[in-house]
Amino acid sequence: MAAYAAIVTLVQILHPDQFPLRLRNPEIDSLYNKVISLQSILEKIFPITKNIRQQVIDLNGRIREAIYKAQDEVESFIIKHSLSSENILKEIIEEIDPLAVEADKIASSIKKEMVSSSAVDSLTKLLNPDSFPVDHLESQLESSEYEKLESDVQYLYEKISSLQSCLDKICAAPVSITVEVNELDIQIKAAAEDTIKSFVSSQTDTDASESETEDPTPPAFLQDLQEITANIEQLAEKAQKIADSINEDQPKAQDPLSESAQTTSKRDFRPKKKRIIGQKEDFEKLKEEILKEKNDSRREVLPIVGLPGSGKTTLARSLYEESSITDEFEIHGWVTVTQDYQLGEIFSKLFHSLETKGQKKGEAAQSEKKENLQDAVYKSLRKKKYLVVVDDMWSEDVWDKVKSSFPDDNNGSRIVLTTRSNEIAKYAKASSDFLHRMKPLSLEHSWELLTLTVFEEDPCPPHLKDIGWEISRNCRGLPLSLTVIGGLLSQENKTEEYWKNIQGDTLDAAAKGDEAYVEILFLSYNHLPGKLKGCFLYMGAFVGRKPTRKCTYRTSNIVDN
To answer: What is the mean pLDDT of residues 49-73?
Structure first.
């Protein structure tokens, strides 16, 4: 979101701690406040669903131009101590004001509510003392009993109203407590719906009993009122506790490079071993081929070919991390070849990834001179049975240059190569008969992967299951699409409205055919909050798939702060 990034830059320029004190004036202060307000509004335009997407894109363009204009004027003012015209700042503010109003309207149109909101609203209306049907019992109950009944209904109404207020606050719950909020949301929905059903059922029973007797007893709903109230009261207390925790002041952000920040950080950003879903047969087939004893022990290339996002790298990684495979080889290594490659970088990555028995990754690299990394790779592998994974090969020419560093000593060495190109796969395997093609996941495996990503080990709530199946179908069996969409769904409150929006977006993406994964990746970007879009774009400056530990740490702090 270029508009948001431009606003962040202008806010930094205008910040009272940064802007030259001698140049401050009421117009600068007013512009600063206007821009801060606009920034806050843009952060509320989330998620950007299909029905408002074009409107938001158009508005972002106009905001970006207005902010760029303001930035040019302010920077010129700092340098020259004069403005291009006397009223220019006033004109810029007048240009920003209607844009802020329009942005606010869009933000207000994004309806965020809990799953339980509809049921709680209905129950609140039902229990309204002005309309709740208890008057007809006044003549049938003792005065003290009737007053207690009125008081109990009023108390339950107040608890439901309090719960309704808490739900509005909980909608903005941070990601860190999403699971807790979702569990409570489902419990509240069930309790509210059960209460309404109990009332409707008791009213039917009351109508029947009134036709048979002149002395009806209070409806079952009113007799169970104490138990119903206790349940609602417990849920309301939980909701209030969460709402209060959201409103509490957050601890002050630490300098990400400070010693205290590094020692107090509890997060572990190391990649977790992925659970393989729908690839068990692929895994066993590749494992058998890698370990197969053949009469001909020549070095063999085993290509894995498939669409982007089809799980090639995940499958290769699972094979590479399987100790029963790597233990059969004296040395093993991994290199990812990017489309915008540099040959020296490829050999450097491979050389530094090499592991032998008894030596951890990188230790072998320390004992070698690095004048010629291609020769260093060749010497490290020579006369050894090795396993190397070459991930994401893009070019036959590059393969020709890389494979020259892989000696063939007739000792059963194996090279696993992943590529999206069928031609490269055939070219690389040469005389080998083996070529593994990735297939899309079945609908059942797609659903399993989606629910695992969204809910981890918990089951999908019944009200989302049908929509979820359609979303998983729209991902066309591509693991990347399923994990991206699953990550998106896991960050939001689990409402039917939001899931239906995602269903519509993924249906449009599926219509793109083999390019569907690109649309889904862009969809995940569209659903990022404004302040994270800038962070995401900055991270795009880092080349390749494996950022350094320091880069990962700093990125985590950018997101946190």
So the answer is: 89
